[in-house]
Every structure is written in structure tokens, then in C-alpha cells.
């Protein structure tokens, strides 16, 4: 049997599900089947159960190429990969569909409107069918067990159990003092769709995590994209910002950072002797900028191997950009795009005596904007201390993020120091002037 056309439709209610299948061969033989599921299923699960059963049937009749027609846009889009499958049970169903589909030469999935799938829809409702022309066969079947099941393991008791027990069934501990404290505590919690959340005053609902989930969340937030391996307290604050909560999150965050190998190997231990504090007076935010160049580094994507860094002396705001080459034009573009157009025209720019900064065109560019250019000491360019400190912070972040392939992770590391989205839709620098 070369090409077979398969029409299927599934439906469900609270107690059971039903499905209708039409399998049509190239020779005109039509197999019609009305199926009842003897177990509760969702509409999408009914569609998958129907499809799995019919693929098995098509294999039994030695079909090699299958065209599947379904009126479920969710299921057809998940099989094609245009929709993401979030439900755990549907993920296993999708994996099984793909595994069985590999046994055919070709399997195509097509979404059709319900009116074009009326026959299968009628079969799913167990309606009476009219005899058609040609060789037709109508079969009614009963499926007692689902094709795919989830193995659910019971979680160990945790700090959430007393709270959820009280919110669901009003259960209280036997100790009167503990029960009184629990009544006060549960006022801060709510159960939404089976998940426990903690109410916050200045933040949205926080998802409460079981101890078995905290390790994964800590690792993802600490190592995640655009993060720069922050310390324990900052990690705990980021967890709250990401809407997670458990009582010992501050302690667990500190312990996680202490045990993280890369953070310990590249820790910033202060070894310099104490000196008299030297202040650089800036008249306003973003009026005095320090600029420096780092590199060359191992070549990364786009042939970039240099890093230009600028820092505002008043707010300590860092701007950085990767460059493929050192040239006056690249420095002018950086100053215009990253500094002038975003923070206004500064009063002073401080740099070392590198040729890229002492270049005549770069000096004319700054003078044309009315920016005064100052240079650090020739004997000791490190006197441009603020930008040197920023360089140290960025280099430390790069060491923690770079993998063995060299060059990966530098762009995301720089993005962790850049502007972030604000709920108020205001520029990140705006609160400095409020």
C-alpha cells in the first residue's frame, strides 16, 4: 500500500474520551472506526491517542506513506514543530509519534478545518454512519489503557506540606503554639492551580519550590545567559526577582557560591595596602568618562578580539563593545553610539596615551562636540583608576564564563553589564535624575 490518507478526530469529557478514524487506501478501500477511551483524557491527549493507534493500524496493513489529516491545530503544529509542547504527558505522546513515524517512508501531517473532517467528527461522537460507495468497513472499538502514561513519584515531606494541608483541608498541628504561628503564616500564601505561591508586598506572586528543585534553579540563575556569576546575596535577590521562593534561599545561595569552583578560582581577593582615599569630583552624572582598550583576546565570532571599555566616574556605569580592529573610526563610532546618543555630550573624556586615543581625527571629533580630552600619566597610565577597576571586573567575568572552545560567552558576558528592561519603560539612567 503506497499512499494512505488518514483522517482522525478526538474528543473528551470528564470521564472518558471518544475518537473517530478513517483510513483510506489508494485502491479506495476505506476503514472506518469509532473508538471509546475507557479512561479520562484531555482533548489533545485524545487526538494523540487516536493518531498513535491509527499509525499502528497503518503499519499492520503495510502502508508505507501516510498523510494524516486532523482538525486539531495544536496537535498538528506540535508535530510539525511550530508549537512548543509544554505538557509532560503530551511530550511523551509526541516522542512516541515521532518514533513510530520513523518506521514509514513518509508521514505528512496536515491541519484541515472541522467541516472537511466531518466524517471523522461524526464517528468520534458515535453517530450513525451512512453506508458509502465502494468497499467500506465500520468498526467500533474500546481502548482500556492509554498508550502513554507518566510515572509520578511522591515527593518527600517539605516545609510546604503544613501550609498546603491547612489551605486545602484546614489541617492544623497538634501543638497550639505551632498552630497559631501557622495560621499567621498561611495568610501570606495561596494555592493557584495546584501550585503554592507566596504573596509579596513589592513583587508579584513567588512560586514556592520543593527542596529537590532548588539546586537546579540556583544553577540556572547563577550560570544563566547574561549573568556574571554573582555573589550569594545578589543571587538570592535575583531569585526573588525571577519569582521564586523558599525559606532558606539566602543561606542556600551563599553556600552554592562558596562551593562553585569557577567563582572560587577567580575570586577577587583584595591584597593592596591601604592608601589615602582620592576623590575625583564630577559635576553631574555622565559628565566625566574614562576610556580604555583591552586585548587582544582569542578571536571570537565576527573576528572580534579587542574590547573598548568606558565608565562614568559619577555613577560607575559601564559601557563596553567588542571590536575586530583598533582604529580611530571605530573609537569615534563607539563614542557616538554608546555615549553621546544615549547619555548626552560629556564634559571630559580621560584615556591613556595610546595612539588610538592621541590620533588627530579622534581629537578633532571630540573637539567638534565640545568635549575636553585629558590623558593619564605617561609613566603610569593606571592612574586612570576608575576605568582600570571596570576592566578588572569585566575580565573577571570573562574568565568565569569562557569555556574550552575559547571565544564563546564574551558577548553575553558584556550584556550582563548593559541596560536591562525596566517595568516602567524608562531608560536605565533616568532614575539618576529623579
TrEMBL record:
Name the InterPro entries on file: Integrase_cat-core (IPR001584), Integrase_H2C2 (IPR041588), RNaseH-like_sf (IPR012337), RNaseH_domain (IPR002156), RNaseH_sf (IPR036397)
GO annotation terms (biological process)? DNA integration
**Which GO molecular function entries does the Swiss-Prot or TrEMBL record give?**
nucleic acid binding; RNA-DNA hybrid ribonuclease activity
Q: Which residues form the Integrase catalytic domain?
A: 281-434
Entry-linked CDD domains: RNase_HI_like (cd09279)
Which Pfam families does this chain map to? Integrase_H2C2, rve, RVT_3
Question: Per the database record, which ranges form the RNase H type-1 domain?
Answer: 1-129
Q: Where is this region: Disordered?
A: 404-434
Q: What protein am I looking at?
A: Uncharacterized protein LOC107472336
Amino acid at each position: 500500500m503506497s499512499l494512505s490518507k488518514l483522517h482522525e478526530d478526538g474528543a473528551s469529557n470528564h470521564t472518558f474520551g471518544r475518537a473517530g478514524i478513517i483510513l483510506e487506501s489508494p485502491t479506495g478501500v476505506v476503514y472506518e472506526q469509532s473508538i471509546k477511551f475507557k479512561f479520562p483524557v484531555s482533548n489533545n491527549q485524545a487526538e494523540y491517542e487516536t493518531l498513535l493507534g491509527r499509525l499502528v493500524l497503518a503499519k499492520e496493513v503495510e502502508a508505507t506513506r501516510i498523510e494524516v489529516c486532523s482538525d486539531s491545530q495544536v496537535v498538528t503544529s506540535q508535530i510539525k514543530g511550530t508549537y512548543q509542547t509544554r505538557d509532560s504527558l503530551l511530550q511523551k505522546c509526541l516522542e512516541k509519534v515521532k518514533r513510530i513515524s520513523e518506521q514509514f517512508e513518509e508521514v505528512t501531517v496536515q491541519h484541515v478545518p472541522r467541516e472537511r473532517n466531518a466524517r471523522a467528527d461524526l464517528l468520534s461522537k458515535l453517530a450513525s454512519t451512512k453506508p458509502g460507495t465502494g468497499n467500506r468497513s465500520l468498526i467500533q472499538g474500546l481502548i482500556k489503557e492509554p498508550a502513554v502514561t507518566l510515572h509520578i513519584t511522591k515527593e518527600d515531606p517539605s516545609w510546604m506540606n503544613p501550609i498546603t494541608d491547612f489551605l486545602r483541608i484546614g489541617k492544623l498541628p497538634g501543638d497550639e503554639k505551632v498552630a497559631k504561628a501557622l495560621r499567621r503564616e498561611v495568610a501570606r500564601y495561596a494555592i493557584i492551580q495546584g501550585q503554592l505561591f507566596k504573596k509579596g508586598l513589592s513583587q508579584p506572586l513567588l512560586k514556592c519550590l520543593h527542596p529537590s528543585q532548588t539546586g537546579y534553579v540556583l544553577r540556572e540563575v547563577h550560570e544563566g545567559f547574561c549573568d556574571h556569576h554573582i555573589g550569594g546575596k545578589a543571587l538570592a535577590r535575583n531569585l526573588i526577582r525571577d519569582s521564586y521562593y523558599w525559606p532558606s534561599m539566602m543561606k542556600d545561595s551563599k553556600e552554592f557560591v562558596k562551593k562553585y569552583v569557577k567563582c572560587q578560582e577567580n575570586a577577587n581577593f583584595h591584597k593592596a595596602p591601604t592608601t589615602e582615599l582620592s576623590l575625583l569630583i564630577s559635576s553631574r552624572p555622565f559628565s566625566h568618562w574614562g576610556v580604555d582598550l583591552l586585548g587582544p583576546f582569542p578571536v571570537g565570532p565576527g573576528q572580534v578580539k579587542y574590547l573598548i571599555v568606558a565608565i562614568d566616574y559619577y555613577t560607575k556605569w559601564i559601557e563596553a563593545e567588542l571590536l575586530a580592529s583598533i582604529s580611530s573610526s571605530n573609537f569615534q563610532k563607539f563614542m557616538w553610539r554608546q555615549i553621546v546618543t544615549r547619555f548626552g555630550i560629556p564634559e571630559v573624556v580621560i584615556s591613556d596615551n595610546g595612539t588610538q586615543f592621541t590620533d588627530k581625527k579622534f581629537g578633532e571629533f571630540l573637539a567638534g562636540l565640545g568635549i575636553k580630552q585629558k590623558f593619564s600619566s605617561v609613566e603610569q597610565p593606571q592612574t586612570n583608576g576608575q576605568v582600570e577597576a571596570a576592566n578588572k571586573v569585566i575580565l573577571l567575568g570573562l574568565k568565569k564564563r569562557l569555556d574550552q572552545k575559547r571565544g564563546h560567552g564574551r558577548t553575553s558576558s558584556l550584556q550582563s553589564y548593559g541596560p536591562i528592561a525596566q517595568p516602567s519603560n524608562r531608560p536605565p539612567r533616568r532614575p539618576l535624575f529623579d
